[in-house]
Amino acid sequence: MSENRRRTINTIEVNVLARWIVAFFFVALAGLFFVYLKNQQHAIGDHARSVEYALRQAEAKNETLKARITGLTSRGALQKRIDEGYLHLEPILDTAIARITPPLSAEHDGVLRTASRDPDSRFGAGAPQRTISR
Amino acid sequence: MKKTGTRIGLVCGLMVTVFTFFAWRLIDLQVNRHDYYSRIAAEKHCIRIAIPARRGRILDRNGEELAVNIPVRTVTADGTRIHNAATLGAFAAPYLDMSVAELTSKLSTQRKYVVIRKEVSEEKTQAMIAAMDKAKLHGLYLEESSVRSYPNADMLCHVLGFVDHSRHGIDGIEKIFDKDLSGQDGFRMIEHDRKGREIVIYRGQEQLPQEGSDIRLTIDMGLQAIVEREVDATYKELHPKGVTAVIADPNTGEILALACRPNFDPNNFSDAKPDQMRNRAISDMYEPGSTFKIVVTAAAYNEGIVNDTTRIYCENGRFPYGGKVIKDHHGSGDLSIPEILMKSSNVGAAKISLRMGDQSYYDYVRRFGFGEKTGIPLQGEISGLVNPPHRWDVLTKTRMAFGQSVAVTPIQMVMAMSTIANGGKLMKPRLILSMGEGTAVEPAKPLREVVSQKTAKYISMALEKVVSNQGTAVLAKIDGYPVAGKTGTAQKIGTHGGYLEGRYIVSFAGFMPADAPKMTGLVIVDDAPIGSEANYGGLVAAPVFSRIGGKAARYFDMPPESPQMMAQSGNSGTNAVTTR
Q: What angle do CA B504, B508, B514 make, to 5 degrees?
């Protein structure tokens, strides 16, 4: 090739080109990674939203069921059940109750009794909730 | 060559101009008008959603739920997102219990927020939303809400009160402690997409709700149920204008049960009449009649004006004084102080009052808590009526001695009787045991010492004789348990003054066990149409107290004084629940 012809040809500087390509590649990769992270954020956000929604639903359902249980076990409802014959009150005669000593308080011996209501415990935080025999 | 240079310059200049314009526009949008466009964008995409606080529950002293919340949903619509109102209306109407035409007309709007229906059950709304998602329909949204429910219906209604549709207390505990029960709603700033769904990553400022405090009452629902049953039976049997019963712990002032008739169901408060909603225990005043004799006898004994050996001549039941004649039901001669109470002698009580100074007597009446509000945390309490000495006529003092010319509320009478029961201390009635995390609102404390322990004991022993075979309240007796108390029979006052013939308010106030009182009770039966000959506190109200007291003793498992007596009365048994 003559000298004149060689002069008109632009030389490609592979080093510089490679540097730019690598730089562009990294920028593009960073961009794609950014988009990926953003999508992940949205996907996790959507997931969080659906979990929150499911949680709220479960809470609401729980509250509804608790309210229903409270309603069905209320005194009025139980009385209705007794009237209908589903529940029956069996009288325990006084003669069938043996009282050796007056009932002790739970604070006395730390024992919460079920057969006799602790007379002091109704004033305390550790009062028995409900006894079945009254 | 020159031409080419000009052309390049022209193109470059044009490009510079264009990009300068773009740059200027960009700066204008992003910097100069940033606030304006941000606001528009926020209005379009950002919304503030409220996070409702849970209203606190009301519990009895043992944790039984008396007022609870049932979650419901408010269905709203965004008209700008509805493409076909008719289709959506036809689809959603069955879930919302609305007619298709009604729903379609509500959905045919361009408004962004329309309330379609309130208080729709959780199940129905979830089914609707699931079906809408499946059918790819949009435009209906759900908001969290709740309705207040009172599982025991009309039981304890006058204490609990009720809330309106916006969940604000209107009466009772719901009203007085509305702020504590309501809590504080929270909020969250959110951005949403074109379909109205929240974009979680752009979630903005958030404030969590402050849940309402649970309130634990001093009421014992086991005892309340006993009282309600007896009050109800009395109301149905005698058909009076009203029945009131209050049970308190004399040592702490805690109200254990409170029932009035007529009553109402707070779940359907709009159906109730004003008379049903009135809490007679705090907002009605009445002439107490002979139950008030405890005041004059205790005052005179405490002042040393009368003593254990004092005997009062009771004029054989007819004592002319101040131009009128004070009469006794059964005439007597000399009576001791306990006998005056036992026989309920008006003449004896009047004569004791005449031995006292006006101001001193008045001071004792006030010290027992009459003429002032007790401070019970319920709305509508009145202070009763006690005139000061300068307003008295010649008869007032003697009439006050046996419960006339004075008006009291049932709660005042219960606390006065508790003063005798607990050794002379006037307690403030307590209705709240704890609030929130179990902290006591205020400890039980005596307001003042009204009479000495010795006086209280003396009057208590006298009242025990009232509930004996010789006394006026023999029907208040409870097998195995000593009872102390006093009957009261007062004629009703007409609206234009003067007493109404044959119309009475009868009552019994007492406590048990008399030697170590655990509960004080008052039963009032207002204007029962049963004839004058049978309408006495000892015949009408005392048996109700006896039944309540007997069942309460079993409920609290109070050890009987004499087990043999209990064994004999084998028909009153404890009930155990069995399922069939």
A: 165
> Shortest Cα distance from B123 to chain A (angstroms)?
8
- B19 falls within a domain: no
Q: Estimate the crossing angle of helix B100-107 against helix B85-96, to 10 degrees.
A: 130
The total domain count for chain B is 2
Q: What is the DSSP letter of B356?
A: S
The answer to whether residue A92 neighbours chain B at the CB level (below 8 Å) is yes
Same domain, B372 and B462: yes
Cα dihedral sign, B192-B193-B195-B199:
negative
Predicted confidence (pLDDT) per residue in B230-274, tens digit: 999 999 999 999 999 999 999 999 999 999 999 999 999 999 999
B234 and B202, same structural domain? no
Q: Cβ(B374)–Cβ(B254) under 8 Å?
A: no
CA distance A27 to chain B (A): 24
What amino acid is encoded at B303 in this protein?
E
Domain that includes residue B97, residue range? 48-83+90-217
Q: Cα-atom radius of gyration of chain A, to the nearest Å?
A: 41
Which residues between 434 and 453 in chain B have a beta carbon less than 8 angstroms from any beta carbon of chain A?
438
Span B532-567, pLDDT tens digits: 788 889 999 999 999 999 999 988 888 887 544 444
Task: State the CATH number of the domain containing residue B178.
Answer: 3.90.1310.10
Give yes or no: residues B450 and B415 share one domain.
yes
Question: Quick check: A93 and B573 CB within 8 A?
Answer: yes
Residue A37 with chain B: CB contacts under 8 Å: none
Between residues 25 and 64 of chain A, which touch chain B (CB distance below 8 Å)?
A: 41-42, 44-46, 48-49, 56-57, 59-61, 63-64
pLDDT score, position A5: 58
pTM of the shown model: 0.81
pLDDT at B579: 33
Tens of pLDDT, residue by residue over B480-492, are 899 999 999 998 8
Give yes or no: residues B211 and B341 share one domain: no
Which string of DSSP letters, residue by residue, matches B86-100?
HHHHHHHHHHHT--H
At B157-196, the pLDDT tens digits run: 999 999 998 889 999 999 999 999 999 999 998 888 777 7
Q: How far apart are CA B24 and CA B573, in angstroms?
A: 95
Per-residue pLDDT tens digits for B345-368: 999 999 999 999 999 999 999 999
**Residue B255 φ/ψ, nearest 5 degrees:** -85, 120
Interface A–B counts its CB contacts (< 8 A) at: 132
CB contact under 8 A, A63 and B71: yes
Strand B58-59 with B215-217, pairing? parallel
Look at residue B442 and tell me whether its pLDDT is greater than 80: no
Q: Is B562 known to be catalytic?
A: no
Q: Mark yes or no for CB contact A90/B578 under 8 Å.
A: yes
Interface confidence (ipTM) of the complex:
0.74
Q: What pLDDT is recorded for position B498?
A: 80
